Automatic annotation (TrEMBL):
Mg(2+) binds at residues 209, 226. It comes from Sphingopyxis fribergensis. ATP binds at residues 46, 53-55, 112, 117. One of its GO terms (cellular component) is succinate-CoA ligase complex. Keywords: ATP-binding, Ligase, Magnesium, Metal-binding, Nucleotide-binding, Tricarboxylic acid cycle. InterPro entries: ATP-grasp (IPR011761), ATP-grasp_succ-CoA_synth-type (IPR013650), ATP_grasp_subdomain_1 (IPR013815), Succ-CoA_synthase_bsu_CS (IPR017866), SUCC_ACL_C (IPR005811), Succ_CoA_ligase-like_bsu (IPR005809), Succinyl-CoA_synth-like (IPR016102). One of its GO terms (biological process) is tricarboxylic acid cycle. Heterotetramer of two alpha and two beta subunits. Substrate binds at residues 277, 334-336. Succinyl-CoA synthetase functions in the citric acid cycle (TCA), coupling the hydrolysis of succinyl-CoA to the synthesis of either ATP or GTP and thus represents the only step of substrate-level phosphorylation in the TCA. The beta subunit provides nucleotide specificity of the enzyme and binds the substrate succinate, while the binding sites for coenzyme A and phosphate are found in the alpha subunit. This is Succinate--CoA ligase [ADP-forming] subunit beta. Belongs to the succinate/malate CoA ligase beta subunit family. Binds 1 Mg(2+) ion per subunit. Pfam families: ATP-grasp_2, Ligase_CoA.
Length: 401
């Protein structure tokens, strides 16, 4: 689960991480009021969407010469003008795709006198089953570009969960960023706060870009100028407060609906809908569709013990996508029984007046009962013997339609 930048900063501040003053705003009036509460004279007006590259992005409605989704303002009047430009308009960035995302929230922050920018992130390193700290002196840039062009500028530090964060980890981060003296101590403090936040919230990723050396009243200070935090969705039952931060307007409506039925659904750009039980089998199904010359329209895992109602809901979600020209159902009945899947398929197909080709491959528990249900349904369902046969048949059906 992702949250907005302003939510991430408010969260990190609770763990002792230094962030600039900032206030979220949902309207132009709130943006102006927020700016008046900040010391100024420099303000930053930041679009809040779940995507990176906001500063370099462009608004569809404002033309190619308009400024991006992160803007500086030297007066309250400029804050108001930027807010009017951003709110309600569609910001297109390198991460949103050409469709972009509508800006419904802003974050008005105090300006900072930046001397140097760094990149710092905590991630789950699945290879080592540990938390990895990634640090680079190339802050403010896309980390993918840095990794491609100058990989030697990226430093990775692995933290063993058995011992946890140790003082030498903080010193290693400071050394990787080229910091010494008081700034090195601040780097250790920032890392300690981020590590505590990572563990305390069951985070999957905390990305700070940039972490900046800024001029303060009492000398240079390290401030988190931008933050991206993502949580393990499977752990949200332990964090009801964090679950309430979820912004459903940032998510695909079909994916939101799927989550209500505990379905794992991700919309893709193809034309063949997939309904499968098991993530590995779903990936294999998508691959074999591509191998046969077409593209999957979604990833959908109904799970190992889905009910008839859950299968019906999954079927409806697939068919809501206008790009879907055919559906491939691939079920291996272990915990899941093939007759339950068949009942769900027939019920959903009748309820939505199925108008696209449907190929079904069933195998496993109660497979014959499931096949009998489909055969006697009176629906034009094409049966398949195995996965390879199913992929060939759905591709042929879609191309013939």
């Amino acid at each position: 689960m992702n949250i907005h930048e302003y939510q991430a900063k408010e969260l990190l501040a609770k763990f002792g991480v230094a962030v600039p003053k900032g206030i979220a705003a949902m309207t132009v009036e709130e943006a102006v009021a927020a700016a008046k509460q900040l010391p100024g004279p420099l303000y930053v007006v930041k679009s809040q969407i779940h995507a990176g590259g906001r500063g370099k992005g462009k608004f569809k409605e404002l033309g190619p010469d308009a400024k991006g989704g992160v803007r500086l303002a030297k007066t309250i009047e400029e804050v108001e003008a930027h807010a009017k430009d951003m709110l309600g308009n569609t910001l297109v960035t390198i991460q949103t795709g050409e469709h972009g995302k509508q800006v419904n929230r802003l974050y008005i922050t105090d300006g900072a006198d930046i001397k140097q920018e760094f990149y710092l992130a905590l991630l789950v390193d699945r290879g080592s089953s540990r938390i990895a700290v990634v640090a680079s002196t190339e802050g403010g840039m896309d980390i993918e570009t840095v990794a491609h062009d100058t990989p030697e500028k990226i430093h990775t530090i692995i933290i063993d969960p058995a011992t946890g964060l140790q003082p030498h980890h903080g010193r290693s981060v400071a050394a990787a960023l080229g910091l010494s003296g008081d700034l090195a101590k601040q780097a250790s403090k920032v890392l300690a706060g981020l590590y505590a936040a990572f563990l305390g919230t069951d985070a999957e990723q905390i990305e700070i870009n940039p972490l900046a050396v800024c001029e303060g009243k009492d000398g240079d200070e390290l401030l988190v100028l931008d933050a991206k935090v993502a949580f393990d969705g499977n752990a949200m039952f332990r964090h009801k407060d964090l679950a309430e931060l979820r912004d459903l307007t940032e998510e695909d409506p079909a994916e939101v609906e799927a989550s209500e039925y505990d379905l794992a659904y991700i919309k893709l750009d193809g034309n063949i809908g997939c309904m499968v039980n098991g993530a590995g089998l779903a990936m294999a199904t998508m691959d074999i569709i591509k191998l046969n010359g077409e593209f999957p329209a979604n990833f959908l895992d109904v799970g190992g013990g889905a009910s008839k109602e859950k299968v019906t809901a999954a079927f409806k979600i697939i068919l809501k996508d206008p790009a879907v020209k055919g559906i491939l159902v691939n079920i291996f009945g272990g915990i899941m029984k093939c007759d339950i899947i068949a009942d769900g398929i027939v019920a959903a197909a009748k309820e939505v007046n199925l108008s696209v080709p449907l190929v079904v491959r069933l195998e496993g528990t109660n497979v014959q009962e499931g096949k009998d249900i489909l055969a006697n349904s009176g629906l034009p369902i094409v049966a398949a013997n195995d996965l390879g046969d199913a992929a060939k048949k759905i591709v042929a059906e879609v191309r013939a339609a």
